[in-house]
Amino acid sequence: MDDRLTGLRASVLSLWRAHGRQTPIAGLVLASAEVPTGPFHGVYRPSLCAVLQGAKVSRLGGQAFRYDAGKCLIASLDVPIRAEIVEARPDAPYLALALEIDTAVVAELMLGQGNVADPPPGAAIEVHDLGGALIDPLERLLALAERPQDIPVLAPMIRREIVWHLLTGPQGGRLRQIGLADSRLARIGRAIGWIRTHYAEPLRVAHLAALAGMSPATFHRHFKAATAMTPVQFQKSLRLQEARRLLLTRPGDVAGIGFRIGYDSPSQFSREYRRLFGEPPGRDGAELRRGLAEAGP
């Protein structure tokens, strides 16, 4: 496997030096770090994240998922995570790529596949080996960055091939569900979509259960199995991540930001923010802005 990764590592490192995080190929981003970093917070969309060198740990609720060289993390739903790069050195930097998975392509490829049974309840992110069937199309996709005239025609074809290999490989069990409108995971995904759009509004589990076509008790059980969080905890994580983003652009308005994301009590907002990020919002926002200023253009 290590020999198969050599070409991918070289391509990612070359593209990172030329373009940084954003590549010319839509939906494909790169990551590189010479020292361990984090923790940092974000929301994983349906995606494939492959580590080619070093190691990373992503946490969903109370579950930790470690993936190192030759491993990939596959996210089947939008989920808020906390992640950190745990292995990286100047002479062997952390190298990874992340490719968004188009759920419409998943649905199209699943047409004609017949009935697909729901997998056992489990988290919406999983770690698997990066199989050889994925390495070849990933190499071809990365190579397109040096041939921009070919990207509009060939990139969608190669991305479709990658999705097919994911669906038909050992890592495809949960991913296949997002292409089936009536699957358990797709119905949980509809509820997650509502929470993401309406995160600042009061949350009623009965309403979310109705969106998912489940009883409240069944919905609560399957939601927690997929996200490792209750719906209320999920909403809180989204609210606080949005607050952190707003603190970068609205310094000095901590209370206003708390109200904007749905908190009636400034003290509760500050307390829960500190519990998640380790510092009260005002101090954390100042540190974030200072870090960006020191990083320069």
Automatic annotation (TrEMBL):
**Gene3D superfamilies in UniProt:** Homeodomain-like
Task: Enumerate the SUPFAM superfamilies for this protein.
Answer: Homeodomain-like
Q: Look up keyword Transcription regulation and say if it applies.
A: yes
InterPro entries, per this entry?
Homeodomain-like_sf, HTH_AraC, HTH_AraC-typ_CS, Tscrpt_reg_HTH_AraC_N
Ranges for region Disordered: 276-297
Q: Where is the HTH araC/xylS-type domain?
A: 189-287
- Alphabetized UniProt keyword annotations: DNA-binding, Transcription, Transcription regulation
Q: Name one GO molecular function term.
A: sequence-specific DNA binding
Pfam families reported in the protein's UniProt record: AraC_N, HTH_18
Q: What is this protein called?
A: AraC family transcriptional regulator
Q: What is the lineage of its organism?
A: Bacteria, Pseudomonadati, Pseudomonadota, Alphaproteobacteria, Rhodobacterales
